[in-house]
Design a protein that fits this description.
The complex is a heterodimer of chains A (355) and B (310). With 355 residues, chain A is an alpha/beta fold. Chain A has eleven helices and 15 strands. Chain A starts with a strand and ends in a 15-residue tail after the last helix. In chain A, 54% of the residues are buried. Chain B is an all-alpha fold. Chain B has one domain: ABC transporter involved in vitamin B12 uptake, BtuC, CATH 1.10.3470. Chain B is built from 13 helices and no strands. Chain B has helices at 8-34, 42-60, 63-86, 92-110, 136-140, 145-163, 165-175, 177-182, 187-213, 225-235, 240-263, 269-287, 291-297. In chain B, helix 2 (42-60) packs parallel to helix 4 (92-110) and helix 6 crosses helix 7 (165-175). The chains are: A alpha/beta (355), B mainly alpha (310). The A-B interface holds A 1-2, 33-34, 36-38, 66, 151, 157, 182-188, 190-194, 196-198, 200-202, 204-207, 216-218, 221-222, 225, 239-240, 350-352, 354-355 and B 5, 7, 10-11, 14, 18, 21, 101, 105, 108, 111-112, 115-117, 209, 213-216, 218-225, 254-255, 258-259, 261-264, 266, 268-270, 273.
């Protein structure tokens, strides 16, 4: 774990003591992995840098990386709050309860928790509708697999991850009725060695397209080595798999972070729940590889356009749950509440969902 | 249940790749502990080796130079630990932990510009006839050279500790440093040599991770492998050959459970992913059930500082 403050901010602070005191807003960020993971934490750090870029001397940002989910997170956030942070972004699902606990002790500090569902007067939640991106890459995966087997490296069985598997599977199935998903749970967000092992195991079991919901580009590296396909997760990951990468789901937190820091500066910050998708730009779809045939590219692009236009919802009935019971009737779309708490596989996915 | 989808040959190959970084780090730590020093900084030395090996391989285009650099880097880091514990008499546990934290931070700093790069390929063994044999070929004769070297290293360490005079002296230092000192052996220098060797092995293990197993550099990529290596030394009750058993068992169960998950076997993934740790704990309980024998295996001076004035 390391604690880094930008030198510029420190200098500004020192100058501020001597000259006219500029009211500086302090924003703290905690990451579950290193900001150089080229995946999840990397994009959050890009958001932090965008905040610095946007506000210059008006803001001082700091971050603590590789903070384990649990008690340690509580300690780090408490330290940040004691250090005078005005707003703290806790950027992993497992920071949910620690965030709430610390927030209760510091009512004047604003907290922003990513991908969680518990809020308080000074705790907002925000997430991206990654499942919209999963729908698009699911379509591509369904078309591109020759073995009809898509491998999926999953982290923890939480609603966000389950939603991604379901969305990708439904999309793949809609264009390729024979497609099969093999899901491996690695119970970690970040362990390149284990992610690589999981990718190898999936390839061994016949997967020729791999999706991941973990943070490092290890699976992409393995896919490149073994000559199969994969998708960038959270970041584009192009440099890790120039031949393997078909497309990617790119998280873009910058606009949200800037607007929330602005709200703190303006005194207009309120607790709220944000869940933005492709349309507002929080979820980006990386450029399609030329390995994807033109008609499949067009099909995927059409899906992106329809999601932006609001005419396509990835969870549109008829959809049954894995046990065969009806979840959504024909034409019905899933409500956000059910999606946010999704704890079941849809019909057709094999294997038992761990709980 | 259909197990035909499990290919024992490729399972074997995958498990060796998964186990080798741990095995390399563990064999180094075994020698360190045999000399009576407990260095908990394995994780830090591994990650330094991972970045040093990766960076130098990328710069020179030669993975062997990279591996050599990883060994040097690991040994240098280990000697910081050696200096503090052997000359400044600092607490070994605290210093080892500090070494891990320092190594992780240092590696992150050194590796900043190496994310997203590709290392040169590490050559695999390719013996014309042997490598093409069915089953035996892929299992025995077509790995990257490091896998053979790791096993040779274990053999070498066994030979050194049990069949050479120098090994006997090293063990004597680990069992009773005062007695060894009174016989005229330089306890501190012997321990420093062991510590440097341990660091070089851990560094090599780290380089294997970043050059062969994943091949990429990512900050924090050892993700606890150093701690597993420490556990495996205890698991092996300080016997070199048992390290292979321990590392391959741990690696094997990890690979097997991932494959079983990918096959969609009807056991909950939560239980499967527990198994490597569970089995390690069970075996350790069995091994240490006979308390008298277990405590006999641990070097008697393990973790105790030595000062010639005592």
């Amino acid at each position: 774990m390391k604690f880094t403050k930008t030198l510029a901010a420190a200098t500004a602070l020192a100058l501020g003591l001597g000259g006219a005191a500029i009211a500086q807003t302090k924003a703290g960020f905690i990451y579950v992995g290193p900001p150089t993971d080229f995946g999840w934490s990397y994009e959050h750090d890009q958001g932090r840098l965008a905040v610095e870029e946007a506000f210059g001397d008006m803001v001082e940002t700091s971050f603590v990386a590789s903070v384990p989910e649990g008690a340690d997170a509580e300690r780090v956030m408490t330290q940040m709050a004691l250090g005078g942070a005005d707003i703290i972004f806790s950027t992993s699902f497992g920071y949910m309860d620690p965030t709430l606990n610390v927030a209760a002790k510091f009512p004047n500090v604003k907290f922003e928790h990513a991908t969680g569902y518990k809020r308080a007067d000074n705790v907002s939640t925000y997430s991206a509708r990654f499942y919209e991106g999963r729908h698009v890459i699911g379509l591509i995966a369904g078309r591109m697999t020759e073995t009809n087997t898509v491998g999926y490296i999953a982290s923890f069985p939480i609603p966000e991850v389950v939603r991604g598997i379901n969305a990708a599977y439904l999309a793949a199935k809609s264009v390729n009725p024979d497609v099969q998903f093999k899901v491996v749970w690695v119970y970690t967000w970040f362990d390149p060695g284990k992610e690589a092992d999981a990718a190898n195991a999936l390839i061994e079991q016949g997967a020729d397209v791999i999706m991941q919901h973990t943070d490092s580009p290890a699976a992409m590296t393995i896919a490149e080595e073994k000559g199969i396909f994969a998708f960038g997760q959270a970041s584009d990951m192009m440099q890790f798999g120039p031949n393997a990468r078909l497309s990617s789901i790119i998280d873009n937190w910058a606009p949200y972070y800037i607007s929330r820091v602005q709200a703190v500066m303006d005194g207009t910050w309120e607790s709220m729940d944000t869940w933005d998708g492709i349309k507002p730009g929080m979820v980006g779809i990386g450029e399609f590889s030329d390995k994807i045939p033109a008609d499949v590219q067009a099909e995927a692009q059409a899906a992106v356009d329809a999601i932006v236009a609001g005419t396509l919802h990835p969870f549109t009935g008829p959809i049954n749950k894995q046990d065969g019971s009806v979840w959504l009737a024909a034409g019905e779309t899933a409500d956000d509440g059910t999606l946010a708490g999704m704890n079941f596989y849809v019909e057709g996915i094999e294997g038992e969902l761990p709980n | 249940m259909d197990f035909s989808a499990l290919n024992p040959v490729s399972l074997m190959v995958s498990l060796m790749i998964a186990a080798t970084p741990i095995l390399l780090a563990a064999v180094g730590e075994l020698v360190v502990e045999k000399s009576g020093v407990l260095n908990l900084g394995v994780e830090g030395m591994m990650i330094i080796g991972a970045i040093a090996g990766f960076a130098i391989s990328v710069e020179t285009g030669n993975p062997w130079v990279g591996m050599l650099a990883a060994m040097v880097a690991g040994a240098v880091l280990a000697l910081i630990f050696g200096f503090m514990t052997q000359f400044l008499m600092s607490n070994q546990v605290a210093t080892g932990l500090a070494l891990t934290l320092f190594g992780l931070g240092m590696a992150a700093l050194l590796g900043q510009s190496y994310g997203g790069m590709k290392p040169p390929r590490t050559p695999r063994l390719d013996i014309p006839v042997l490598s093409d044999l069915p089953i035996v070929g892929p299992i025995l004769f077509s790995h990257d050279v490091m896998i053979y070297m790791s096993i040779a290293l274990v053999a070498g360490v066994w030979y050194f500790l049990n069949r050479t005079r120098a090994g006997l002296v090293l063990r004597a230092v680990g069992e009773n440093h005062d007695a060894a000192h009174s016989l005229g052996y330089n306890v501190v220098m012997i321990r420093l040599a062991a510590i440097a060797f341990g660091g070089a092995c851990a560094g090599l293990g780290g380089a294997y991770l970043s050059l062969v197993r994943v091949p990429q550099w990512t900050e924090g990529m050892t993700a606890g492998a150093g701690w597993i290596a420490l556990a495996i030394v205890v698991f092996a009750s300080w016997k070199p050959w048992r390290l292979i058993l321990g590392a391959y068992l741990f690696g094997g169960v990890t690979i097997l459970q991932l494959n079983l998950q990918a096959m969609g076997i009807g056991i909950s993934a939560a239980y499967l992913s527990m198994t490597p740790y569970l089995i390690t704990i069970i075996v350790m309980v069995i091994i240490s059930a006979d308390r008298r024998r277990a405590s006999m295996n641990a070097p008697a001076s393990l973790g105790r500082n030595f000062h010639a004035s005592h």
